[in-house]
Amino acid sequence: MSSSTTRHTPDRTEADLAIRVSHMTKEFVLRHTRSMKEAFVWLVKGRKGDLTAKFTALNDVSFDIYDGETVALLGFNGSGKSTTLKMISGVMNPDSGEILTREKVAGLIEVGAGFHPDLTGRDNVYLNGAILGMTKEEIDAKFDDIVAFSEIAEFIDTEVKFYSSGMYLRLAFSVAIHTDPEVFLVDEILSVGDEPFQKKCIGRIKDLVRRGKTLVVVSHDLGLVMDICERGIVMDHGTKVFDGNVYGAVAHMRNQPEEDVRREHEEGLARALEDKRRKREWQAREAAERGEQFVPQYDPDLDGPLAG
Amino acid sequence: MDIQAPTTHLRPPGQDRGLRDVFANRFLLRLIVDKEIQIRYRGTVLGLLWSYLKPGVQFLVFYIAMGVFLDLNRGIENFAVYLFSGIVVMNLFSEVFGNASRSVVANGGLLKKIYLPRQLFPVSNLLVAFIHFVPQLAILLLACFLTGWHPGIKQLLAVLVGTLIISLFSLALGMLFTTFNVFFRDAENIVDLLIMVSTWASPVLYMWTMVREKLWDWVYYVYMLNPLTVAVELFHYGFWFPTTDNPQIWHIPPHLLTGWTPLAIVTSLILYFLADKLFRSQEGNFAQEL
Ligand SMILES: Nc1ncnc2c1ncn2[C@@H]1O[C@H](COP(=O)(O)OP(=O)(O)OP(=O)(O)O)[C@@H](O)[C@H]1O
Ligand SMILES: [Mg+2]
After folding, report:
1. Which distant-in-sequence residues (6+ apart) come within 8 Å of A248 by Cβ?
2. What is the CATH number of the domain that holds A184?
3. Which of A163, A226, A304, B133 has CA atoms 20 to 30 A from the CA of B18?
4. Where is this region: Disordered (chain A) (predicted)?
5. Distance, in angstroms, between A14 CA and closest chain B CA?
């Protein structure tokens, strides 16, 4: 199993650890409903055997995640990815094994989990912000940004139940992305809203990566995962089957050689970049024909990261 | 790497420190309380006025049934004040107990997805209940002044201590049953049953003397062990007693202030301690059971 190699410090120390999961195991009870009769028979027979069937959702999973790492958690449905994130965020406890994390871990397990339909958008921003660990001062300071990012300023004092589902997700995502934790846990929420908004969200996540935030992403969108993450962990039926470079992880998922995956992805990236450049040239020409001055919109892929 | 000692800047996630965490999250607590109030009265014209109306009607019903039909009116001086000071206590108890018992299941959607101090939910119900308690207290005070209330410092203290006992006792029971409720939804029905019985298991609609006269001695002692009985009697002592003209006929249970009250405080504290322990030992399983 190859160890992860990232552009960050190759010789990392204990002090740079953000998450440590060691020998995490979790069993779930499969059948919850038990009738009185069953329970009675079980008691009378001297409580022999298990009343309920058990199911091992996570089996001896171990990994370390360091500060500034971007990790994709991959695997098929039911392989235990969401359960792993819930363990890391503290929603669930493992049966055995140990999990350690930094102080401020924000789980974007599901956008809008703390939203209440009967409150206004404004109240929901405050409530959800506080649930995600923001203080009053932080929310006050970021409120305008949050609303601006969601682009639903007109509706902010309307009750959320009158929002369209996309608007609701926009606001929820906007709150979540404005929290400032040390570690972000993102579970399958990058597909919110319409296409322009999705692009904006992904851009925002990439921003976080550039600023050196630690990120753990669960997603079935392998192309997107390769855009964002450097490292990939593949889960299968509750065990870790691969941990290493994200291309290797995707290759493992697709059953393809790693080189092919890497080449395809890099070609795709180059194509997208070329498209963007061509679009900008075209815009510049259009502007010149109209006799206007062309100021290109900032794009980190074309212009490099902003200073500061 | 696994054999190395755990690093010091990391901590296990989801460590709950009980009330201390609730206090550290005051801002969130306030928002949750605001939310509860807003949601309860959404779309109502009268809003918080309902918290005056409901106890008012409840009082009238009991007053007519017990005071007029059963003639307790003539048996107990200022029966209206007597009745209402007990009802106020029971309302506080049943609201905290009832809502706190449902709080974890009711907020299951949130608890399953995001970690936050889970005791916030039962505690927020205590605060919401207080918001409804204050208007009732105001009505009670009005009635007291109309009947010539002249309390001393001891009476005021009794009311304060009574309120404390009720808060602690109902929150403890709420936390206990909200934990049961996650695993067995039967708990909700048991809570309803207990609330129904509790009004009759303490001297709200009758006087404590009836228990001592009509039943065996040991029943009386068990009766007095109930913190609810003590709290109700403390309220009677604080509100109703000072409005009566000949206090020598009416007396509070012997050793109420010196014996039963400290005992009720200790009982409630122990219960709270146990409930907190149970809640915290089980809360790690809430997310997967809900
Ligand atoms: N509370 C629970 N009780 C019982 N079983 C559970 C519980 N939560 C999860 N499981 C089981 O654990 C397994 C892993 O679930 P998990 O949600 O982690 O999968 P996942 O990898 O996130 O899948 P997906 O890609 O579909 O999101 C599943 O088989 C699921 O049925
Ligand atoms: Mg999942």
Report:
1. A2, A232, A242, A258
2. 3.40.50.300
3. B133
4. 284-308
5. 6
Per-residue pLDDT of B16-64, as tens digits, reads 788 888 888 899 999 999 998 888 888 788 877 888 888 888 888 877 8
* Residue B80 forms contact with A (CB below 8 Å): no
Residue whose CA is at the smallest distance from ligand 1 atom 25: A77
Token pair 């965490």: residue = B21
| Enclosing domain of residue B101 | 44-282
**How close does chain B come to A303, measured CA to CA in Å?**
37
Mark yes or no for CB contact B42/A118 under 8 Å. Answer: yes
- Looking at the structure of chain B, the number of domains it has is 1
pLDDT tens across the length of chain A (308 residues): 444 444 444 567 777 888 999 999 999 887 655 566 766 776 777 666 666 678 899 999 999 999 999 999 999 999 999 999 999 988 898 999 999 988 877 766 676 678 888 889 999 999 999 998 899 999 999 999 999 999 988 999 999 889 988 888 888 888 888 888 888 888 876 666 788 888 888 888 888 888 888 999 998 888 888 988 999 999 999 999 999 999 999 999 998 888 888 898 889 888 988 998 898 889 888 888 888 888 877 777 777 666 54
- Classify residue A75 as left (phi > 0), alpha (psi -120 to 50) or beta: left
Q: Which residues contact B285 (CB under 8 A, 6 or more apart)?
A: A93, B182
Q: Cβ of B15 and A109 within 8 Å?
A: no
Q: Do A107 and B10 touch (CB under 8 A)?
A: no
Question: Whole domain around residue A170: which residue ranges?
Answer: 68-94+102-303
ipTM of the predicted structure?
0.84
* Contact status of B110 with chain A (Cβ, < 8 Å): yes
What angle is formed at CA B278 by the lines to CA B275 and CA B284, rounded to 5 degrees? 135
Q: Test A131 with B1 for CB contact under 8 angstroms.
A: no
- Biggest CA–CA distance in chain A, Å, is 91
**B17 contacts chain A (CB < 8 A):** no
Does the beta carbon of B45 lie under 8 angstroms from any beta carbon of chain A? no
Query: Number of structural domains, chain A?
Result: 1
* d(CA B46, ligand 2 centre) in Å: 44
Asked whether the beta carbons of residue B285 and residue A132 sit closer than 8 angstroms, the reply is no
Residues from chain B contacting residue A116 (CB–CB below 8 Å): 35, 39
Quick check: is B54 in a domain? yes
* Within a domain: A20: no
- Residues surrounding ion ligand 2 at CB below 5 Å: A 82
Please tell me which of the candidates A93, A109, A130 has its beta carbon nearest to residue B27.
A130
- Partners of residue B7 in chain A, C-beta under 8 Å: 14-15, 17, 20, 100
